[in-house]
Automatic annotation (TrEMBL):
Entry superkingdom: Bacteria
Alphabetically ordered keywords of this record: Cell membrane, Membrane, Transmembrane, Transmembrane helix
Protein name: ABC transporter permease
Biased composition (Low complexity): 311-323, 673-699
Leader peptide range in chain numbering: none
Primary site of residence: membrane
Subcellular location: Cell membrane
Origin species: Streptomyces laculatispora
Annotated stretches, region: Disordered: 311-355, 669-699
Membrane topology: Multi-pass membrane protein
The keyword Transmembrane is assigned to this record: yes
The UniProt record lists the keyword Methyltransferase: no
Length: 699
C-alpha cells in the first residue's frame, strides 16, 4: 500500500501523458497507415494547436472553447495543405515524404517561434479546472482528470467513426483498394485530403488540451513526434486499441518509469521500438522481406537465351552478304542490347582498336574531371576564404564523409538510414577521449575511431540488414535515438548535455605540434577526406561494389543464384559505419569541441538531404550537398540571425521538389547512369515502379 501511495500520482500522470500521446499518435497512424504519408511534421501540427490554444486562453470556458476550436481548425488546415504538398511525391516513396515533411517541420517551427516567441507560453485554464481534487487520499490537478475524460471520449468516438460509419468505410477502402473506392463514386484524392486534415485536427486538439501538461515551447514538437513514432511502431497500424495500449505504456515509462527506474527509463522506449521492428522484419513473409519474386524465372531465362540465340543466327545469316564470314572470325553481335546487329557496320579498319582504347580513356577522363575540378577548388579554398569560412569548410568535409557513408547505404545497398549519426558519434567521442588520454596523432585517431565505429556497426548491422524500406528508416532512427540517450547518460565518457571541450589538439603526424590554425586543420581534413573518398570510390567500382549494386537491383535473383546477400549488406553496413567514424573524428579535430547536438537526429536528416541533393549514387554529389547544407546553416543563416531552421527547411523543400534525381541527374539526363542501382528496396512494392534516384527508371 505504501508503494501504491508513493507512485500513485506518477502513475495517473502516466495515464494522462499516454492519452495525450494516443491522440497525437492516432493522427500519425491515420496519416501513415491510410494516406501513406510518413509525416515528420506531425509534431509541428501539435505545436500549432498548443500555441493557438495558449494564446487564446484567458481563464474562461469561452476562451478554452475558442482556443480548442481555433487550434483544431488551424492544424486541420495545415494537414490539408500537407496533403497537397505530398501528392506530387506519391510515386517517389516514403524517403522523399520524410525529407519534405522534416523540412516543413523546420520551417514551421521557426515561424511559430517568430509568431509566439521563444519562451514557453503560460496556459490559463478555467477556475473550476485550476484546482485539485482528492484521489485515493492524494491531491491531483482537476485539469488533468478532465483531459483524461476527454481523451477517452476522443478514442471511443474515433473508433466508432472508423468502424461503424460510411466515412470510416471510405477511409479504410482508400488504404486497401483505392481503385474500388473510385469505382463507387468517391474521390481517393478527396479522401486523402480528408484523412490528413483529420490527422492534423487530432494533433491540434491534443496540443490545445495537452498544453497544461506539456506547455508549448521550443523542443516540444520534436519530443512529441519521437514519442508518437514509438507509440505507432509499438501499437501497429491496424488497431486503434493496440495504439491506445502502447500509448499508455509509453506514458507510464515516461512518468512512472523515471521515478522507479531512472537509470533505465531513457533506453526503454527506443529499445522496445527497435526490438519490435526487428521482430517484425525477421518474421515477415519472404516476398515482403526480399522483394517481389519473378513469377517464372525459368521461363524468363529461356526467353532471354532464345533472344540471344536468335540474334546470333541473324548475325550469321547476314554475315556473307557483307563480305564477312559467319564463323568464329566473323563480327560478333554488339554487347549493347540497345544496338541492333546490322548497326555494327563494316569490319573495323587497322588502328580501330587503338581508337576504341582512346575513347575508353576519354570516358575515364570525363568521369574523373569533376573529381579533379572539385579537388583543385578545395585545395585553393584557404587562399580565398577568411578563418571562419575555412573552419566551416572543414566541418563540411566531416559532414561530407557522413553523407558519403549514407550514399553507400542508401544509394548502393538500398538501405535508407536516419541513424548514421550513431557510428559518426562513436568515431567523434572516440577521438575526443583518445585526445584527452594523450593519443593526439591524427592517423592513430582516425584508425581507432574508424575501428570503433565499424565494431558498433557490426553489432547493430544484423538488426538493420533484414529490414527494407520504411522499416529501415525506423530501425535506424531508433538506433540513433538510443545512442543519443547513452550520450546524455554516460557523462564520464561523453560529458552529457555539456559535451566535451578542452582536450588537446590533433597532431597531423608523429612528432608534430597540435594544430590550432584553421588552415592547418582544414588541410588535414582535406587530406583525410580525399583518401577516404578515393578508397570508397575504388571499392564501389570494384567487383565487390558491383555485387553490392546487384543485391539492390535484383536481390531475389542474387539469392536464387547462391549469393550471400545478407553478408554483402552487413559488410557494406560495417564499411559505411567506419567511414562515418572517420567523419566524426574529423569533426572533432576541426571543431575542437563536441556536443550532443553535433551527432543528433537533425544531423542525420542533413546527411540524408545531402545524398538527395547530390544524387543517390553520386559520391561527389554527397560532398557538394554537405557543403551546401553547411553553407546554408552557418554562413547564410549568420547574415540573417535567428532564421537558420527556416532556411534549412526551405532547402529541404526545394531539394525534394527541384532535384528528384539530384545534381547527378541534372548532369546526366534521363538516359544516363545506366549502371546505377535500382531504387531503394521497399517492403511491399517493386522498385521498378518508381524512378531511380540516379536518373534512370529501374529495369
Amino acid at each position: 500500500m505504501e508503494l501504491l501511495d508513493a507512485h500513485l500520482v506518477p502513475a495517473v500522470d502516466g495515464v494522462a501523458y499516454g492519452l495525450l500521446l494516443f491522440v497525437v499518435a492516432a493522427g500519425l497512424s491515420l496519416a501513415f497507415g491510410t494516406a501513406g504519408v510518413l509525416n515528420l511534421s506531425h509534431g509541428t501540427l501539435y505545436a500549432i494547436g498548443a500555441y493557438t490554444g495558449a494564446e487564446l486562453s484567458d481563464g474562461t470556458w469561452g476562451g478554452l472553447a475558442l482556443g480548442l476550436a481555433a487550434g483544431t481548425a488551424a492544424a486541420a488546415l495545415a494537414g490539408a495543405g500537407l496533403s497537397a504538398a505530398t501528392v506530387p511525391l506519391a510515386r517517389r516513396g516514403h524517403l522523399a515524404q520524410a525529407l519534405l515533411t522534416f523540412g516543413l517541420a523546420l520551417a514551421g517551427g521557426d515561424l511559430l517561434i517568430q509568431l509566439f516567441g521563444a519562451d514557453e507560453l503560460p496556459v490559463r485554464v478555467p477556475e473550476a479546472l485550476d484546482t485539485s481534487v482528492r484521489l485515493l487520499g492524494h491531491r491531483y490537478p482537476a485539469c488533468r482528470l478532465c483531459f483524461i475524460v476527454m481523451a477517452v471520449l476522443l478514442a471511443v468516438s474515433g473508433t466508432w467513426v472508423l468502424t461503424r460509419t460510411r466515412v470510416g468505410a471510405a477511409v479504410r477502402a482508400s488504404a486497401d483498394d483505392p481503385q474500388m473506392l473510385a469505382a463507387t463514386g468517391h474521390s481517393p484524392r478527396a479522401v486523402h485530403t480528408g484523412v490528413l486534415a483529420t490527422a492534423g485536427a487530432l494533433a491540434g486538439a491534443a496540443g490545445v488540451l495537452g498544453a497544461p501538461i506539456i506547455g508549448p515551447g521550443p523542443g516540444t514538437s520534436e519530443n512529441v513526434l519521437m514519442l508518437s513514432l514509438v507509440v505507432v511502431v509499438l501499437g501497429g497500424l491496424r488497431s486503434l486499441w493496440a495504439t491506445f495500449a502502447a500509448a499508455i505504456a509509453v506514458g507510464e515509462v515516461q512518468t512512472l518509469g523515471v521515478s522507479v527506474l531512472p537509470d533505465l527509463a531513457p533506453y526503454l522506449l527506443f529499445a522496445a521500438m527497435a526490438a519490435v521492428l526487428v521482430f517484425r522484419s525477421r518474421f515477415a513473409e519472404p516476398a515482403a522481406v526480399h522483394g517481389p519474386q519473378d513469377p517464372d524465372p525459368v521461363a524468363r531465362l529461356r526467353r532471354r537465351l532464345a533472344a540471344r540465340l536468335g540474334a546470333r543466327r541473324a548475325a550469321t545469316a547476314t554475315g556473307p552478304a557483307d563480305g564477312t564470314t559467319g564463323g568464329a572470325g566473323g563480327p560478333k553481335p554488339s554487347a549493347d542490347p540497345g544496338v541492333s546487329g546490322d548497326s555494327a557496320g563494316p569490319p573495323a579498319p587497322p588502328g580501330a582498336h587503338s581508337g576504341l582504347g582512346g575513347s575508353v580513356r576519354g570516358a575515364v577522363w570525363r568521369r574523373a574531371a569533376p573529381l579533379l575540378v572539385l579537388l583543385v577548388l578545395l585545395i585553393a579554398l584557404p587562399g580565398m576564404l577568411d578563418s571562419y569560412s575555412i573552419s566551416l569548410a572543414g566541418s563540411a568535409l566531416a559532414l561530407g564523409l557522413l553523407a558519403v557513408s549514407v550514399t553507400v547505404l542508401t544509394g548502393y545497398a538500398g538501405l535508407p538510414t536516419l541513424g548514421q549519426t550513431a557510428p559518426f558519434a562513436v568515431g567523434a567521442y572516440a577521438t575526443a577521449n583518445l585526445a584527452d588520454a594523450g593519443w593526439t596523432v591524427g592517423p592513430v585517431q582516425i584508425v581507432l575511431s574508424a575501428l570503433a565505429a565499424a565494431v558498433f556497426s557490426a553489432v547493430t548491422g544484423p538488426a538493420v540488414i533484414r529490414a527494407r524500406g520504411t522499416t529501415v528508416l525506423m530501425i535506424t532512427l531508433a538506433v540513433g535515438e538510443l545512442t543519443s540517450a547513452v550520450i546524455n547518460q554516460v557523462k564520464s565518457v561523453t560529458g552529457g548535455a555539456d559535451g566535451l571541450v578542452g582536450f588537446p589538439s590533433t597532431q597531423a603526424l608523429w612528432g608534430g605540434e597540435g594544430m590550432t590554425d584553421e588552415s592547418d586543420l582544414y588541410n588535414y581534413a582535406l587530406v583525410v577526406a580525399v583518401v577516404a573518398v578515393a578508397v570508397t570510390l575504388l571499392v564501389l567500382r570494384s567487383p565487390a561494389g558491383k555485387l553490392l549494386t546487384g543485391t539492390r537491383g535484383a536481390e531475389a535473383r542474387m539469392r536464387a543464384s547462391g549469393h550471400p546477400v545478407g553478408r554483402y549488406l552487413l559488410v557494406a553496413h560495417v564499411c559505411a559505419g567506419a567511414l562515418a567514424g572517420v567523419g566524426g573524428s574529423l569533426m572533432v579535430s576541426v571543431q575542437q569541441y563536441l556536443s550532443p547536438a553535433d551527432v543528433g537526429f537533425e544531423i542525420a536528416a542533413f546527411a540524408l538531404l545531402a545524398v538527395v541533393i547530390g544524387g543517390a549514387t553520386s559520391v561527389i554529389g554527397a560532398l557538394l550537398g554537405a557543403g551546401l547544407i553547411v553553407f546554408t546553416r552557418d554562413w547564410v543563416a549568420g547574415s540573417w540571425p535567428g532564421h537558420g531552421p527556416l532556411l534549412l527547411g526551405a532547402l529541404f523543400i526545394a531539394a525534394v521538389y527541384l532535384l528528384p534525381r539530384g545534381l547527378a541527374g541534372l548532369r546526366g539526363g534521363p538516359g544516363r547512369s545506366g549502371r546505377a542501382p535500382a531504387g531503394p528496396r521497399t517492403a511491399t512494392t517493386a522498385s521498378a515502379s518508381t524512378p531511380s534516384p540516379a536518373g534512370k527508371a529501374s529495369p
